[in-house]
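Q: Structure tokens for this one, please.
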Amino acid sequence: MSTVPLGRRAVLLGAPVAGLAVACQSGSADSRDRALTRDEERSLATLRTVDASLPLFAMTHYGTYDPLQPIAMASSPQRFACSLFLAGGGPRGPLFGRNFDWRPSPALLLTTRPSREATSLSLVDISYLGIDQDAGKRLMDDPELRRRLLKAAAIPFDGVNQHGLAIGMAAVDTAQPPKVPGARVVGSGRIQRLVLDQARNVDEAVAVFRRYTVRFEPGEVPLHYLLADARGKSAAIEFVGGEMRVLPGAGDWHDMVNFVLSTADESEKRSDTRYRTIAERLRRTNGRLDPAGAMDLLSKVAQHHTRWSAVYELRHGEMTLALARDYRRIHRFKLDA
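A: Here is the predicted structure, written as tokens:
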């Protein structure tokens, strides 16, 4: 990682948190007292502070984890927004850009190295693990709080894996997923972990979605998803009337914000300032942006509550990251598979 100068309504598990994750706040006596495995100890030993101002932490999770473990969440009436895009051309190959817009809370840059699935790099809002701003200040010195990070692998907000497959989500007004006969039911955020673990490209990611029944719990905010891969292929995944709809990208680019693409007409798309701004830039450049240009585009559609702006280089496993709209300080990370 290096830092160099450069001149909600979003949620992960379905709904923004009004409070903390109750299950992670209290925990059971067994989970608190259970001895850590060797992989868990090794994982927590990698924890470090990247940027104390947000704060942003980083950790590598080694070994196995349960992507379907339950994490209790509380809903919120607040409405926030996100912006995502694929820029398929340019000197560094396909780029996946993403603004995550939500209230201030600590974040974790998580590298997962499971024993059998793909290695991945993702960002996690750890308030969903019961670590709010105050708890974040104590995290490095509090063993119980650090232990909660072992659940973070289950809830990526956006990320890329070693094959160059990226995924991110944004909230919409409505989503009615199909009930797949005989399929395992998964949460609206956990499906992203399954995609990062199991898919190498967009086609395989779509197949992962089809293997599970995605469920939005009562009170949760519905979502749609953007997929992109190292070949420059992309697709949006939406749920309309009990049907999963797959919307391929328009040539070398794709654009997604907070309305249902598959039911929106052209006037609705153009009336959304963020969508229009991204689409006009990508159309004008034929999707050819370098990482600095992609970050500049994210800055143009950032809002006052933008938590992070991330640009993933899908052929190189690299990420550039700006926190809280500070585009003069850019953090750089690389996923070494």
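A few notes: The chain has ten helices and 18 strands. The CA atoms of residues 89 and 281 lie 13 Å apart.
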